[in-house]
């Protein structure tokens, strides 16, 4: 069975679609190109997943959206690969061009404590037990490395970018409930190379940067992204769940929008205590997101020019910084 089964040109500003075999019970549907990361493609992925949810295909039993793909599990006894591709073609025909897409999307507000002690502990454990000469460890933290790698003036400039935009959960994966967030404002783009080798411990709730994505660690785990802060728990997988997770153990869903508010570590510790005691109410607003809102900002000439200037400054800075 060939790896690439079909390719489709959808036209009208929509991405190219590549259908790939993924075993005898799954198919990988890829959209657009691997580089650069394109939010328009990700919006199309979510629109297709949402449409499949409201217009189910007989024989298709699970969909896993990625950054620019859908992994589709199906029953080959009920539907053949050929008929599944035909059904997907029909669904794609119903999806408008990205600028006209409206998606179900919740707005979540999370507090964040920058340069917290748990993050420093993870970095120092790494320095002591794994790689004493790691170039991304500067004075027991990763923050100053992120600042230099992105060509920023200081820590405050980094914090402003994190706090000054809304972050879009492009997909969840690697661990159950781990969100990969991209900025809706292109002026807030950041890049971070991965650890080499990876850490053996990352605290639950750690917020970190890897490639173009911010992640929030839902559990204590391994990790290779640059840590810069910590937030509240975003998953609760035990049978006895705290108030915010009684319906769904995973807090952040694909397509959610996240904003961060800076607080002190002492304040974060108190809020985390409230979460574990079942007294904290997460700030979650249900709603929908019109993708046109993103394009209205991202295509504004002043924004395009500033985002380009910042990318150029970042590229120049990266030539001077050692990669782990």
Automatic annotation (TrEMBL):
InterPro entries given in the database record: CT_C_D (IPR003833), Cyclophilin-like_dom_sf (IPR029000), PxpB (IPR010016)
The UniProt record lists the keyword Nucleotide-binding: yes
Source organism superkingdom: Bacteria
A Pfam family reported for this protein in Swiss-Prot or TrEMBL: CT_C_D
Keywords from the UniProt entry: ATP-binding, Hydrolase, Nucleotide-binding
Keyword Nucleotide-binding: yes
Gene Ontology molecular functions: ATP binding; hydrolase activity
Gene3D superfamilies listed in its UniProt record: 3.30.1360.40, Cyclophilin-like (2.40.100.10)
Domain (Carboxyltransferase): residue spans on this chain: 17-252
SMART domains from the UniProt entry: AHS1 (SM00796)
Entry-linked PANTHER family: 5-OXOPROLINASE SUBUNIT B
Protein name: Carboxyltransferase domain-containing protein
Organism: Pseudonocardia petroleophila
């Amino acid at each position: 069975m060939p790896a690439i089964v079909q390719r489709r040109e959808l036209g009208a500003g929509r991405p190219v679609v590549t259908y790939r075999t993924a075993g005898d019970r799954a198919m990988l549907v890829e959209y657009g190109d691997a580089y650069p990361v394109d939010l328009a493609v990700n919006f199309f992925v979510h629109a297709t997943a949402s449409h499949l949810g409201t217009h189910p295909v007989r024989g298709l039993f699970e969909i896993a959206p990625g950054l620019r793909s859908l992994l589709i599990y199906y029953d080959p006894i009920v539907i053949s690969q050929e008929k599944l591709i035909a059904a997907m073609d029909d669904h794609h025909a119903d999806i408008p061009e990205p600028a006209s897409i409206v998606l179900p999307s919740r707005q979540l507000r999370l507090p964040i404590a920058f340069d917290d002690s748990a993050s420093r502990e993870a970095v120092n454990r790494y320095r002591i037990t794994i790689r004493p000469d790691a170039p991304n460890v500067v004075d027991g933290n990763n923050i100053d490395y992120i600042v230099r790698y992105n060509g920023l003036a200081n820590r405050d400039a980094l914090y402003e970018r994190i706090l000054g935009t809304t972050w879009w959960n492009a997909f969840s994966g690697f661990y159950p409930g781990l969100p990969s967030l991209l900025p809706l404002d292109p002026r807030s783009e950041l890049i971070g190379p991965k650890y080499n080798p990876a850490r053996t411990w990352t605290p639950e709730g750690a917020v970190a940067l890897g490639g173009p994505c911010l992640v929030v660690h839902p559990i204590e785990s391994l990790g290779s992204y640059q840590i810069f802060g910590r937030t509240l728990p975003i998953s609760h997988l035990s049978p006895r769940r705290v108030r915010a997770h009684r319906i769904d153990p995973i807090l952040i869903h694909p397509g959610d929008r996240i904003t961060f508010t800076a607080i002190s570590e002492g304040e974060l510790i108190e809020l985390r205590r409230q979460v574990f005691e079942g007294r904290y109410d997460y700030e979650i607003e249900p709603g929908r997101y019109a993708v046109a809102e993103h394009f209205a900002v991202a295509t504004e000439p002043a924004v395009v020019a500033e985002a380009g200037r910042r990318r150029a400054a970042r590229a120049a800075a990266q030539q001077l910084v050692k990669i782990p």
